[in-house]
Design brief:
- The protein has helices at residues 2-13, 26-40, 61-64, 80-83, 88-105, 186-189, 194-204, 209-216, 220-234, 239-248, and strands at 43-48, 53-57, 73-74, 116-125, 131-143, 149-159, 170-174, 180-181.
- The chain starts with a helix and ends with a helix.
- The model has no long low-confidence stretch (mean pLDDT 88).
- Strands 3-2-1-6-5-4-7-8 form an eight-stranded antiparallel β-sheet, with helices on both faces.
- By secondary structure, the protein is of the alpha+beta class.
């Protein structure tokens, strides 16, 4: 779990973040977070990837979650006091889905990113021993001029026991088209062709291009072309990073 979160940290925090020029500014993001909190009675967390800070807005449900409502600004993009009480399996699923989400957004035009979001079902146990189900939503609401993902909004709603309140285990959704992107490994598995996966598996095992070519009966030129295609599809720059990303999303 920590490995996936570390990969997310690397991807999110190592973006170039040239001078922030975006349609949506930080104060706009704060206002949106506050409005969600008031309208939905949820906890909103606005994270600034460049400054590595988060702003937390509480509703009365914070009392059910036994959260310290005095903590309104933290020097982290992760709201760890809340996340520390989420079931470990659900937290693993959350991080993996968010990594897939970031990979997806890196491949689409920055203007389209606001149409996508993640919805995850989280089991929560407060320090008072109260068991609750939370619906977690993640939206990237602003990008910088260079295309870096800048502002992220997380929304936490308590869901009560009622047949009409079913929450998906975890999905990525395009709110404009209604398209659901399957979070089960189908979406991730289709990123690479079967031949590219075979090449990547051998790269992971430490084989060089010449050895991979002999193993798969390919020319070195073809192997190198597969390597470049893998790097491009996984949005990475080297073999080590490709292996880490592929492992995080279940390709190898």
């Amino acid at each position: 779990m920590e490995n996936i979160r570390k990969l997310l940290d690397i991807k999110l925090l190592s973006q170039p973040f040239s001078a922030i020029q975006a349609d949506l500014q930080l104060n706009d993001g704060k206002l949106i977070a506050q409005l969600y909190t008031r309208l939905e009675n949820c906890i909103s967390v606005l994270s600034d990837m460049k400054a590595r800070k988060s702003y937390i807005y509480y509703s009365p449900i914070a009392e059910q979650l036994n959260l310290d409502t005095e903590e309104k600004e933290i020097n982290s993009i992760w709201e760890d006091k809340l996340l520390s009480q989420v079931h470990k399996e659900d937290l693993q699923k959350k991080y993996q889905l968010e990594f897939q989400f970031f990979q997806l957004l890196s491949s689409v035009d920055s203007a389209e990113r606001v149409n996508y979001g993640v919805i995850t079902r989280l089991r929560f146990k407060s320090t008072r021993g109260i068991n609750l189900i939370l619906q977690h939503r993640l939206l990237y609401i602003s990008s910088s001029a260079d295309g870096s993902v800048w502002l992220a909004l997380c929304l936490y709603n308590v869901m009560y026991d009622h047949p009409g309140f079913a929450i998906p285990e975890g999905v990525i959704i395009n709110s404009q088209t209604g398209k659901i992107i399957d979070p089960d490994r189908h979406g991730a598995a289709e990123i690479l062709s079967s031949r590219e996966k075979a090449v990547l598996q051998l790269i992971k095992q430490g084989y060089r291009s010449k050895d991979i070519a002999g193993n798969l009966s390919l020319s070195i030129h073809t192997v190198n072309r597969h390597r470049q295609n893998i790097f491009q599809k996984l949005n990475v720059t080297n073999a080590m990073e490709a292996c880490r990303v592929a492992e995080a999303i279940g390709l190898v």
